[in-house]
Amino acid sequence: MSSELMEPPTQPHYLADRQSTDPPLLAEIVLDRPMNQPYTYIVPEALASAIEVGKRVEVPFGRGDKRETGYVIRVLRDHPIREVKSIERVVDNEALLTESLLKITRWMADYYVCGWGQVLQAVLPAGVRSQAGIKKNVHVESIPESELPNPLPELTKKQRNIVDLLRSECRDYEIKEFARIASCGVPMLQNLIKLGMIHRTLKEAEKVDYDFGEEAVAPKAIVMNPDQEKVWARIRENLTAGGFKAMLLHGVTGSGKTEIYLQAIQHVLDSGKEVIVLVPEISLTPQTIQRFRGRCGNVAVMHSHLTDSERGAHWRKIAGGGVQVVVGARSAVFAPTRQLGMIIIDEEHESSFKQESTPRYHARDVAVMRAKLENVPILLGSATPALESWNNAQRGNYELLSLPNRVMDLPMPKVKIIDLRHEPKSKGKHFAISPTLEEAMRKALTAGGQVMLFLNRRGFSTHIHCPGCGYVANCQHCDLALTFHQQRSTLLCHYCGYEQAPLNECPSCKQPSVRYQGLGTEKLQAEIEEKFPSKVVQRMDSDTMTRPGSHQVVLDAFREGGIHILIGTQMIAKGLDFPNVTLVGVINADASLHLPDFRAAERTFQLLAQVAGRSGRGDKGGSVLIQTYTPEHPSIRLATQHDFIQFASLELKHRLEHSYPPYFRLARIVIRSLKQDSAEKHATQLSLAFKRVLENPQVRQPGSKFRILGPAEAPIFKLNDQYRYHFQIQSDSSQYLHQVLHHALALVKPTSGVEVQIDIDPQSML
């Protein structure tokens, strides 16, 4: 289905009595469709008492009156301007959406150019929509004497005692619970229900009483250093003053940002309000969660490993006011808190806060807007802030707070570059680590330290080719090379999941000369185990961390010293604090540097700075070795100096020269289809539509800058069997960019089989 906003189709209208003088009760409904306006339906009298804003309803839609589920966004009494259809059923007993959630989702629909119903469908967890985890228990209660059967049935002494006991309690009981209290069996109570002597009701309850961490033991409070005290004093002033305030906390790795978060949370809780804390990936920050649960009362943790029942239970408990702190990944920004007092975003620069399916929102930006709409402060923290956030701080839109030093006066780790252009090859059959890095690892391990090795490529060999004829093993569905996973003995596409058996000979020239080349974490692990046979080596990537709790098991073992060398992708580059790590090695610093994406340099700097920050957090100190073929690149050179400010200055200058964010707003449009000619044709038509709109004097904004690149083949042209063309749109005015988008998209409707994806503020250009 296209993400383009569509005009509602023509529909038959009925059930409105135009002759009536009393206006009927109407409800405005939005559906899970890419449409830019709600539909009006009549509320039948039988449903009038049940209808409410925030509930779901079933309605007939379209010429065929297909039953669809929609969300009530407004209820009013008015005469419709045309005949309308009638609501068939109210789905929910209670409203699922608060007023604040309706406001933020309305903004999201406008800003991210999608349907309001699509946003609401994405905001509500599937476990909430399906009421997963809820069971209906039978309850019994007494019947007023005036309503008892006449004449009364004959009862045994035991039955009369049960009826009298229930009346004396003046409350209802779950039937099994009351059977225990009355020392009788459930069948006896069911018989009294049939006789009309007690009343039976059904009440919803959670199937499982999930642990929300209420009984965690609070650790001793940490004494803050002068830098932390200064930052906390300013945050406390803003919290006391109340109202919306955006603050950016720039603190080097190990500077104690988490303690600042905890102080702020406690202050908000003391005022009787609630806090939302966003983290990049909840399962990767167990230490942070333990500290939250130890000091912040009832904490609900929302992450990707929860079942639908668990998500539903968390949502309902938050909505019921049973949770003070909500900690989670990007979707936690929609937590239905009753009295929100503050939002905190840790590692705010992380690209994982961006949703890559409709609605393509960025949780950081949604959080800032939610804080503004609810008039509460928001704190964004990072050692390497996103350049958009840094620019906001430089312009005064955010208040900049700084933690320039590590806690306990620990020094930043010493960073050394290993220039692979001049480094001799390692001995053995693998060559991932240089002799310099190998020697440093041996010294660190001999001294009792631990080692972390970072490589942001999983698998064993990243490409397979034939040197004889040039054949490359590519995915059958994508324009991407297959990766060899030795442990699974398969060639795998990391985008669509296609698999095939490993090759022993070239499919093209039939020669047994196929070479498996490139380096992934699996091959790195094989090399490390070969060179350090007496050490315990563990790998952390999406191939090994598949079971719930697997991250926690590995990190606990590493913390306790049961693992000497930890190998991992970017999941080990953030949020981890291990004082005994004295050496961090970056195997290939250039892996993300040369991608066709204007954020490549920024991401490289952030990854290197973050992974370097895992070293030297204890009394033993630490060092970092970075292997690279481009040591002179500013992203690498300045990361070794821990100099974010200088990097930001250089990169922002480059962004301004090329009209990129944060100085220009950016949108990306991807047209895709299983048929290449269909995708190309629609891309061409859309290009002409943009030209017409920009030539329209009623749309054109004098003084505003606007640039369209494309249509062109996307860097990954074929993905999941679909051919992709894309546009890149830049403007110095967000309003102008959205205006042009809406007008151009309205001129060209995609044909069957063609999908248009709109991405505002894209994080990936591939």
UniProtKB/TrEMBL annotation:
SMART domains: DEXDc, HELICc. The keyword Zinc applies. Gene3D superfamilies: P-loop containing nucleotide triphosphate hydrolases (3.40.50.300), PriA, 3(prime) DNA-binding domain (3.40.1440.60). InterPro entries: DEAD/DEAH_box_helicase_dom, Helicase_ATP-bd, Helicase_C-like, P-loop_NTPase, PriA, PriA_3primeBD, PriA_3primeBD_sf, PriA_C. Zn(2+) 2 binds at residues 475, 478, 493, 496. It catalyses: Couples ATP hydrolysis with the unwinding of duplex DNA by translocating in the 3'-5' direction; ATP + H2O = ADP + phosphate + H(+). Residues 498-667 form the Helicase C-terminal domain. It holds the Pfam family PriA_C. Residues 238-403 form the Helicase ATP-binding domain. Binds 2 zinc ions per subunit. Keywords: ATP-binding, DNA replication, DNA-binding, Helicase, Hydrolase, Isomerase, Metal-binding, Nucleotide-binding, Primosome, Zinc. Its cofactor is Zn(2+). It comes from the Bacteria. Zn(2+) 1 binds at residues 466, 469, 506, 509. Its EC number is 5.6.2.4. Coiled coil: none annotated. One of its GO terms (biological process) is DNA replication initiation. One of its GO terms (cellular component) is primosome complex. SUPFAM superfamilies: P-loop containing nucleoside triphosphate hydrolases. One of its GO terms (molecular function) is hydrolase activity. Component of the replication restart primosome. Belongs to the helicase family. PriA subfamily. Initiates the restart of stalled replication forks, which reloads the replicative helicase on sites other than the origin of replication. Recognizes and binds to abandoned replication forks and remodels them to uncover a helicase loading site. Promotes assembly of the primosome at these replication forks. This is Replication restart protein PriA. The gene is priA.
